[in-house]
Design goal:
Pyrimidine Nucleoside Phosphorylase, Chain A, domain 2, 19% strand, Barwin-like endoglucanases, single chain, alpha/beta, six-stranded mixed barrel
Length: 500
């Protein structure tokens, strides 16, 4: 079999294996490869192959006719040096793709079929197009509760699982849809200061302007290897880390990399994503926050109750003590929307700053109080008071600083985007409603969460009176194109409903 020299191509293809062949490559011509074909690359001594999606290039500075280029991710998986002679052949279709076709046809899948799909996805046998087909099939044809349980189990079983050796390991999760709802960064230090174990691993944003990991990264490192995470939790009783580097339910991060550009977050996928990560992270007790509002992810109390029942069904069978709290989601929480601005709000609350957003403080105390009541030494109803005392005494701030220091402080402070524009009221009156979805959309168009200093800073909340020409919020962006898109979206719909 003809061989090619291996070349490392410095391109981050974000959770997708990509290989590069020159159009004049003899192997490319003789094998009849086409762009986006899936190929196997392996050492000429027939070592372990890796699967990649083929891209065809015409620039020899990228890959010459006698070479095969591999993106950063696939090069690391192959694990051999540049210039090594390797062979290339067509990759066999993943065996589990037939299960995806069944789901597309509306059939119900079982434990084994979901496990086969997740195993092939983790092994990089699926292209992003095939993953998208799987996600859309699950969203459009729906998932019965047994299927959600099957997918959750499969996602846990295809990754590592942590065991903290304690009977009570606390965690919390908000299903999202409310801009600025950064309660986790306040709940964790309060709970840890009390002494409960709360190793918090969070995802990055999927459809929102910031996730907990995105916001915490403004202050400290969140990409922690497993051994360092364990050491931090041992000494601090908590961490605030990104779950991706810990290899906990790794298929979840691959699915999210496809869901994000599609702005997809279907109920079944969402519950499997959340609970698989919690179980893999070793949680035993979990609070789930479901905000309900006209422009939230969940629009009605009826939908919230259905989601609650599904969470409880899957959580119970995964061995979790799970409580669902349905909260008010009629407007953004806090003032900042975007990683840096949300981190500012969190620090104001921790520092007991008089300017701290009261809604963020209050909701965080309510959630922390419920978690503290998992402790058998805390009487029911005393959790809120205990959480408030921990915050007001400064113990939560001290614990947060200790966690951030242990994870590694960010040595390059994030600044607000250098481009900014105030969006003003077009009429005088009272703010009757704020569109969560539109505020989040404007913040994302401005560059959040990828640009940490981008986002929206709210000056007015529901119930406030405003005068014509008075600023409602300020848009921050770093790049002119994103600034233009955000301004245009705000001009078309400010997100504020003002009544007389």
């Amino acid at each position: 079999m003809e061989t090619l020299k291996l070349k490392r191509v410095a391109i981050d293809t974000y959770k997708e294996n990509v290989a590069y062949l020159h159009r004049d490559c003899s192997v490319y011509r003789s094998e009849g490869f086409q762009a986006l074909s899936k190929i196997e690359v392996f050492p000429h001594d027939d070592g372990h192959p890796v699967v990649a999606v083929l891209n065809v290039v015409d620039d020899e500075s990228i890959t010459s006719p006698g070479e095969i280029g591999l993106s950063e991710q696939v090069f690391e998986q192959l694990g051999i040096a540049e210039e090594t002679e390797v062979c290339v052949r067509y990759a066999s279709p993943p065996q589990s793709i037939k299960n995806v076709h069944k789901k597309i046809a509306g059939e119900r899948l079982n434990d084994e079929q979901y496990l086969q799909i997740t195993e092939d996805i983790v092994a990089n046998r699926y292209s992003k197009i095939e993953i998208a087909a799987f996600l859309v099939a699950c969203a459009e044809s729906g998932m019965e509760r047994e299927e959600v349980l099957s997918l959750t189990r499969a996602m846990v079983d295809t990754g590592e699982r942590m065991d903290w050796g304690e009977k009570l390991v606390a965690d919390k999760h908000c299903i999202g849809g409310i801009p600025g709802n950064r309660t986790t960064m306040l709940v964790v230090p309060i709970v840890a200061a009390h002494g409960l174990l709360m190793p918090k691993t969070s995802s990055r944003a999927i459809t929102s302007p910031a996730g907990t990991a995105d916001t915490m990264e403004v202050i400290a490192n969140v990409e922690l290897p497993m051994d360092k995470m364990r050491d931090i939790v041992k000494h601090q009783r908590a961490c605030l880390a990104w779950g991706g580097t810990a290899k906990l339910a790794p298929v979840d991060d691959i699915l999210i990399s496809v869901e994000r550009p599609l702005s997809m977050d279907s109920p079944g996928q969402m519950i499997a994503s959340i609970l698989s990560k919690k179980v893999a992270a070793g949680a035993t007790h979990l609070i789930v926050d479901i905000p309900v509002g006209k422009t939230a992810k969940v629009r009605s109390s009826r939908d919230a109750m259905e989601l609650r029942k599904l969470f409880e069904y899957v959580g119970d069978r995964m061995g979790l003590h799970l409580e669902v709290i349905i909260t008010d989601g009629h407007e953004p929480i806090g003032r900042g929307v975007g990683p840096m601005l949300e981190a500012r709000d969190v620090m104001q609350v921790l520092e007991n700053d008089p300017q701290a957003p009261l809604d963020l403080r209050e909701k965080s105390l309510q959630l922390a109080g419920r978690i503290l009541e998992f402790d058998t030494d805390v009487r029911g109803g005393d959790g809120y008071r205990l959480a408030r005392d921990i915050l007001e005494s400064g113990r939560a701030l001290d614990k947060f600083h200790a966690i951030a220091q242990a994870q590694g402080l960010n040595q390059q402070p994030v600044q607000a985007g250098k481009l900014n524009r105030d969006i003003v009221a077009q009429t005088s009156g009272k703010v009757e409603a704020i569109d969560n979805f539109q505020i989040a959309r404007i913040a994302r168009l401005a560059g959040a969460p990828m640009t940490k200093g981008a986002g929206v800073d709210l000056f007015k909340k529901t119930g406030d009176t405003v005068k014509k020409g008075e600023p409602l919020y300020r848009i921050y962006a770093e790049y002119p194109s994103e600034f233009h898109f955000a301004k245009e979206a705000a001009a078309n719909h400010s997100a504020y409903q003002i009544g007389k």
